[in-house]
Amino acid sequence: MIRIKLVENEAELSEAHQIRKEVFVIEQNCPEEIEWEHEEESKHYIAIHNNLIIGTARWRKTDNGYKLERFAVLKTNRKQGIGSLLLKKILSEIPSDNNTIYLHAQLAAKVFYIKHGFSPIGDNFWEGGIEHIKMYLPKE
Fold this sequence. Notes:
The protein is α+β, with helices and mostly antiparallel strands. The chain contains four helices and seven strands.
């Protein structure tokens, strides 16, 4: 069984950082200096399976609303619905103060977010050497 929870201590955050380093910096060759921006103001989540942290994501409040970021699942654990579980947990815990919920999706993940109700907006752009599209969650 996979459990999703808010990061509660430095050890959990360190493991989340290791997953992000593995996925973004090593696997996708993103510049490491941009990977660690906005850490302090973000709410971090982890996915746990058999007492191992296998995925992570975060959200933070910005001037534009709530931004979902840094969805990362270890390569050996992908295609098992972990990203969906992380997304659903975060959406269930974001304050419901009628702010915009948005993200910058890698083009490879665009369909995943569409399946979860997000809509693309604007033109594609490059971030960390990877093509992205801004997406938002329409209000119900």
